[in-house]
Amino acid sequence: MFRAGLRTPTAGWCRGWTQANLIAVPSDLAYDMLLYAQRNPKACPLLDVGDTGSVSTPLMSGDLRTDVPAYRVFENGELIDEPDDVCAAWRDDLVAFLIGCSFTFEAALLDAGLPVRHLEQGVNVPMYVTSVPSRPAGRLAGPLVVSMRPFRAKDVAKAVAVTSRYPAVHGAPVHVGDPEAIGIMTLGRPDHGDAVEVRADEVPVFWACGVTPQAAVVASRPPFAIGHAPGHMVVTDARDTDYVVPLT
Asked: Which among 170, 173, 165, 174 has a CA at the least distance from the CA of 241?
C-alpha cells in the first residue's frame, strides 16, 4: 500500500511487526553514524545496517526506496523534499540504518491497560526537539528528540515498567513531567507529529526518539542524507516479541 502511494503515520499499523526509523547516509559518513548510534543508545538503538548501496536489509526485505509511506531528503542539513518515494534521490553510496521505534512497545502498553493517546485520537505521535544535547560522534552532533505520551500520575510507574522491557526500541522514558526542564516550551506545538490532549490528571512522559539522527543531520549539515518522515516508519520483517526482555 505504501509502495502504491499511501501516505500515513504508521502507529497502530501491522500489530506485532516491528517498526523502525530510517536514516541513510553516504558511505564516507557511515562510520560516524554508526558511532553516533553506539554513543546514543537510548535515542538510536540500532536494529540493522544495510550494505553500501543496498535498498534492503536482513530485517527489511522490501525496498527502502518505496516501501515507507513518506520520506525526508536533506542536502547540507536543509530539508529539500518530502517525497512518497526516494527512487530518484537514492545513491549507490548510501548506507541505510534501521533504528528502533517506540511504536514497538505501544501494543504492550495497551495490553497493560494503559491507553495511548495518539492512537485514541487517530493522529501522529507528538515529537519534540529538546535542549538536551546528544553525545557527538565524528562529524555528527545535535539535540535529543523525544516522543510524548500522557498518562495519569498513578500509571507512570506501570508505563515505565512496561517499556523498560524493550531496551532495543528506546526502553524506559528519559523524562517525566515538566516539559520546560528539557527545553519544550509549548507542549501543544510539537516539532514533528501532532499535538494530543493532556488531561488535568495526567503528566507528560517522554521517550527518546529515533528522529534524533535527523536532528543531528540538521545541526551538523552533512552534504546528503535520507530519512523517514517522522511517524511514517519502516515496517520490518521482525516481530515485536524479538525485542522484549522476558520476565524472570
From this structure: 165
